[in-house]
Amino acid sequence: MNVSKAELKISAVGPDQYPEENWPELAFAGRSNVGKSSFINTITHRKKLAYTSQQPGKTKTLNFFNINDLCYFVDIPGYGYAKVSKKERAAWGRMIEEYITSREQLKGVVLLIDARHDPSEDDLKMYDWLKHFEIPIMLVLTKIDKINKTKRTKHIKNIIEIIDIDEDDVYVPFSSETGDGKDDAWKQIRKLLNV
Ligand code: GDP
Fold it and tell me: Does pTM top 0.90 for this prediction?
């Protein structure tokens, strides 16, 4: 995909700030440090479009990125960061739920999972929670460059089995270091967005 335009439209905390265009949207979620910003930057060929995990204490926002005046990528703040207070976590939950349940143009969620480890409790909860709302999910298994090539296939299969993914959902092994999985990721993204 040739990304001629990729820019932050708005950092929103609630529905009154969501963009008004009726473009199809894809949201990106994952544990802090999973490689979500790197993924967004890699596939849009930008160095600093999405920025690395927001610091605790800072306002967590949904970042809407205009891609080619065609669709929005929505960066959801990372979860699972140990130092986040209960209150902050609850606010995060409300903001995400409000978005996920009300946004009609949301076509799916790209859920990023660190391929080096078994999925965390939070990852499994997130997957099941999205499924509960019947959201199509594309799993991206990040940092596969860190896994020995001979073990990769078995390792990935194991992760997919633990998550017990729905037969309609797809997964893409990915590395922002090598660019592996980039074409496949775009293929699946376009399918979800129908663009
Ligand atoms: P975020 O918190 O999910 O946005 O994660 P970042 O994209 O900021 O990445 C967290 C850390 O993981 C950074 O140090 C990245 O350089 C590193 N990282 C991200 N993706 C990859 C990858 O595919 N391979 C490797 N080896 N490191 C990665």
Answer: yes
